[in-house]
Amino acid sequence: MKPVISMIALCAWFCYGCNNHKEEIKNTDWPKYGGNNFGSRYSPLDQINKSNVNQLKVAWVYETGDNKDTTKRPVNMQCQPIVVNGILYGVSPRLKAFAVEAKSGKEIWRFDPFKNADPMYHPSRGVTYWESGNDKRIIYTAGKFIYALDALTGKLIDGFGDHGKVDLYTGLGEGLDHDVHQQYVTQTTPGVVYKNIYIMGTMATESGDAAPGPVRAFDVVTGKLKWVFHTIPLPGEYGYDTWPPGAYKYMGGANNWSGLTLDEKRGTVYLGTGSPSVDYYGATRPGTNLFANCVLALDAETGKRKWHFQTIHHDLWDRDIPAPPNLLTVKHNGKSVDAVAVSGKDGLVYVLDRDSGKPLFPVTEKPVPTDSTLKGEQPWPTQPYPSKPAPFSTQYITEKDLTDLTPEDHQFALNRYLTTRRGNKFMPPSKQGTIVFGIGGGAEWGGQATDPDGILYVNGNNMPWDLKMMDLAEYNNNASSKGKALFIKNCAVCHGADRKGGGADYPSLLNIGKKLSKDKIENIIASGNGRMPSFRHVSYRDRNNIIKFLLNTDTKTSASSAPHNVPEPTMARNGKNAGQGTETKFPYESPYVSNGFLQFRGPGGYPAIKPPWGTLNAINLNTGEYVWKVPLGEHEKLTRKGIKPTGTENHGGMVVTAGGLVFIAATEDEMIRAFDKDNGKIIWQHKLPAGGFATPITYAIDGKQYVVIAAGGTRYNLKPGGSFIAFALP
User: CA-based angle 653:298:228, to the nearest 5?
Assistant: First the structure.
């Protein structure tokens, strides 16, 4: 009997261990955007691991119902949901906030911000949760308002702002000579909460009508404005002298659109900012332009600057900091150092001391080209180059990088390459054109992950863009119609001079009259839609001329009837145009516009450079060295031809787990994958009903671990979707 008793005891011990493990992961939430205040996108859960991940099955699906109406333009979905106390909170493609049971996907409530208002759709990456006692709130932005909802019922909280909502423009217009409500502003990435303070950034346009991008904080209980940090400094503020005097009155951008992270112990919020307006041309903003393209550490209580680090001076290439900084601890020179890791659209990673902002790996200012061919442009003569880590995406194109998929593709790429200005990633934009990287990443808004060992996981794009600048004065003189000239001036930067657009965010406008009525087009131009801002500042007559051009009903006009009111690109001082002596008014009209979001692709439709076109990278931030680098995504047609997986353009982020896994979707092939975090090998993949251009999360309820991804599709001209899909072990 003794051996039997021993076996029973052994089994009892084993089961006790299983129950303990089950208890250990019970009710493990994902309570914040990025998983925690540090933005780690890391989970200690290991129930799903390398040995069993291939057994994952769909556990439940929550269908929002959005994007099912084929008569409406589909809307992108980028939401990374959160889970608090067993409830999953998220945002649908059409910006309805919702709560579902996290173990079943059963809806608890839904809130429609546009039920009694005109919709203003834009990307939303999630919501923020706050609680104090029985007061539990969801804070999120839809359109022009910040909303506070009861987390248990979804009802507006009456004591917050104006019966549950706050005007998003609050605190934005200080010092301006015009009503800031004329400008397009919204919030795409959720803010963070420090004590009772909700801290947030905003999204703006990137043209002459761009709104300023200050970081603001609101009382999470009352909705009252607490503080404002001006990223385009006002007179007397630090950094004011890095712009021409009075720049804050007419310059916009320098905004934090990508989110923030928080060190509660230090009482510090960390964030990155984007480029100043206008993209690709900066003659009216000579200087380094603080605090555009900066990593910022602000006092969370007061908004006062603790330190800053600028990654691009006088940005002319739209090289924003596209994701929240990652806070982690690394080993440096034998000591543990609390650090900030920042990944850029240019494929560079900066590792900074969290207290001082000083780089842990040397950063050198190196000379860069300054021979701009655009009137008045003054490129900054040096740019920062970090010594480590090495870039995770291509920096600039060389002839050996050109595609060799087919002889036709190669010849096409070579012909264009030989006519461009080339040789440096900081080649100033020109009418001749440059093949550039970084407009869509490098890194992008999906965000990076870090684990407790100091490893950074980052997905990168190697997508080339054919950037050309167009002289509006020349174009207007030669335009076949006034409507076409106005279209180039106002619309080509997104929809392209050829009106072919660039995917769901920048749709084709060819044959738009077959899809929308004249009145509907006028309403969209005046009010905005999706990522498109309002153009109400454009006169009704000019808007009507644009519509005639779009509907192909405009008539030819002589050069003399085309607009000629474009200001010279001289430095603006004290709100005056120094070259003309006239007042600089909003919106600022740049004499140049880009040719739109034009990717450099060959006749076959693939990027006109050699793969990989998308990668997943693991970088040891203790040493600055790579652990591994692998292609992310594949083009099935090329795989069937015997070509190794090339990687694809990718937008979305990842989550890394103690189970040794990195989960990421993000790719053109609509897959979600699990990679071995130690070597980058794919050990599970699943085809989603629509592309997962978002960041997955993982959590556990009643001892079961789940992985959830939003499948919204629409990017890369793929089919739309509107569902949240949960995976779990059987």
Answer: 100
- Whole-angstrom distance, CA of residue 2 vs CA of residue 12: 15
Q: Which two tokens stand for residue 687?
A: 């085809």
Round to whole Å and give the CA distance between 431 and 169.
36
Q: Is the dihedral of CA 143, 459, 368, 398 positive or negative?
A: negative
Residue 670 in contact with residue 690, Cβ under 8 Å?
yes
In three-state secondary structure terms, 268 is: strand
Is the four-CA dihedral 193, 197, 203, 206 of positive or negative sign?
A: negative
Tell me how far apart the alpha carbons of residues 168 and 148 are, in angstroms, rounded to a whole number.
Answer: 13
pTM for this prediction: 0.88
Strands 128-132 and 165-167, by their bridges, are: unpaired
Q: How far is residue 208's CA from residue 253's CA, in Å, rounded to a whole number? A: 10
Alpha carbon distance 399, 419 (integer Å)? 12
Rounded-to-integer distance, Cα 139 and Cα 217, Å? 13
| Beta strands across the sheet bearing 614-620 | 449-450, 455-461, 614-620, 625-631
pLDDT tens figures, 539-580: 666 777 788 788 888 765 433 333 333 333 333 333 333 333
Query: Phi then psi for 8, rounded to 5 degrees?
Result: -65, -45
**Would you list the DSSP string of 359-383?**
BSS-EEEEE------STT----SEE
Question: At 130, phi and psi to the nearest 5?
Answer: -145, 145
487-525 tens-digit pLDDT: 776 777 677 777 777 655 667 888 887 777 777 777 777
- In DSSP notation, 689-717 reads SS---S--EEEEETTEEEEEEEEEE-GGG
Take residue 389 and report the two structure tokens written for it.
């880590």
β strands within 251-317, DSSP E:
260-263, 268-272, 294-299, 305-310
**What distance in Å separates the CA atoms of residue 590 and residue 568, rounded to the nearest whole number?**
8
Give every CB contact of residue 237 below 8 A, 6+ residues apart in sequence: 230
How large is the average pLDDT for residues 95-103? 98
Q: Could you tell me which residues are beta bridge partners of residue 467?
A: 434
Beta bridge partner(s), residue 707: 698, 727
- Exposure pattern of 349-364 as b/e (b: 16+ CB <10 Å)? bbbbbbbebebbbebe
442: Cα separation from own chain's centroid = 11
Q: Where are the beta strands (DSSP E) in 220-379?
A: 225-229, 260-263, 268-272, 294-299, 305-310, 326-332, 335-343, 349-353, 363-367
